[in-house]
Amino acid sequence: MKALLVNPWIEDFAAYDFWLKPLGLLYVASYLDKLGFEVYLVDLMNRHDIDLKRFVNVPRDKFYGTGKFPFVEVKKPDVLKFIPRKYKRYGAPKEFFYYKLKDIGKVDIIFVTSTLTYWYPGYWDTISFLKSYYGNNVPIVFGGFYVRNIPSHARKTGVHIFPSNDLNRLPKFLEQVTGKEIKSKNIDWFMLPPMYELYNNLGYLVFLTTLGCPYKCSYCIAHRIWDGIKFKPPEVVVFEIEKYVETFNVKDIVFFDDAILVNSKKHFKVILKKLLEKGYSKYRFHLPNGIHARLIDEEIAELMKELNFKTIKLGYETSGELQLKTGGKVVDKDLVRAARIFRKKGFTEREVSAYIMVNIPGQSVEDVKNAINFCKTEGIGFSINEFTPIIGTDDWINLVNEGKLTGLEDPLLLNNTVLPFWWKFGMSENVVQYLKMYARKVKEGENYD
Ligand code: B12
Ligand code: SF4
Question: Homologous superfamily of 204-443 in CATH?
Answer without folding.
Answer: Aldolase class I (3.20.20.70)
